Amino acid sequence: MTKPIFVLNGPNLNRLGLREPELYGATTLAQVEQLCRASAGGRPVEFRQTNSEERLIDWVHEAIDHAAGIIINPAAFTFTSMALLDALKMFPGPIFEFHITNVHRREAIYHHSYVSKVATAVMAGMGAEGYGMAMQAMCARRDLLT
After folding, report:
1. pLDDT by residue (tens digit) across 58-113?
2. Domain 5-139 classified CATH 3.40.50.9100?
3. Highest taxon of the source (predicted)?
């Protein structure tokens, strides 16, 4: 059985399409999920969003046992959560850190990512459409477990 790609989304991403559309655009999280599934080329996808750091960490733990790769938009937890970093350190496969905006063009508080320390790749600034690119890039990796 083919292992799924986990797409994990952190706090406030459930408000995509409504929250600061000048930064994040008009695409909703439901549309992002559809894009990820369409871009996965038939590979199974576990698509999730939470506003809870604890739940996000639990999902990373689940991914350790069941996922081929993780695409994670940790949102604010990117810059604050050493616990998330510790959980991601245990994941044996590729991890893509994803951000809708270019965090490096934003305020200084957004410039230090704990997640980047363990990420295989970092993608930022491509808008919500970038999720599809992240999924295609993840599925194209030769080191993905079956």
Report:
1. 999 999 999 999 999 999 899 989 999 999 999 999 999 999 987 777 667 766 78
2. yes
3. Bacteria
Report the candidate in 129, 137, 38, 66 with the shortest Cα–Cα distance to residue 96.
137
Q: What's the pTM value of the predicted model, to 2 decimals?
A: 0.94
User: Is residue 24 annotated as part of the catalytic site, yes or no?
Assistant: yes
**Largest interatomic CA distance in the chain:** 44
Q: Is 101 annotated as a binding residue?
A: yes
Structure tokens at 116: 């980047």
Place of tokens 């079956």: 146
Q: Is 100 annotated as a binding residue?
A: yes
Sign of CA dihedral 96, 117, 99, 9: positive
Domain boundaries, the chain: 5-139
110 tagged catalytic: no
Residue 70 annotated as part of some ligand binding site: no
Helix and strand tally (H, E) in the chain? 5, 5
